[in-house]
Amino acid sequence: MNDTEISKITTIPYRTIQEWKKAPLNDWRAKIYTLFSLKSIEELQPEIERIDKILKAREENQK
Predict the structure, then answer these.
(1) How far apart are CA 17 and CA 5, in angstroms?
(2) CA-CA distance, 42 to 47, in Å (whole number)?
(3) What number of helices (H) and strands (E) belong to the chain?
C-alpha cells in the first residue's frame, strides 16, 4: 500500500506517515509504517473496521 492509501484508510495525517517512513529502522514508527505498507487495502480495511468497533464499544461501556 502506498503512503496516500495508508493515510486515507487509517486517517493518520500524510505528513505523519512520511515522518514514520523516515524513522530509524528500530523505531516503533518505522515498524508500524512497514506493517501498513506491506498490507493491501483489502487486508487492512477489515482490521481497521474491527478496531473501530472495539473502540466504539469501549466508549459506550465508559458511559
Answers:
(1) 10
(2) 9
(3) 4, 0
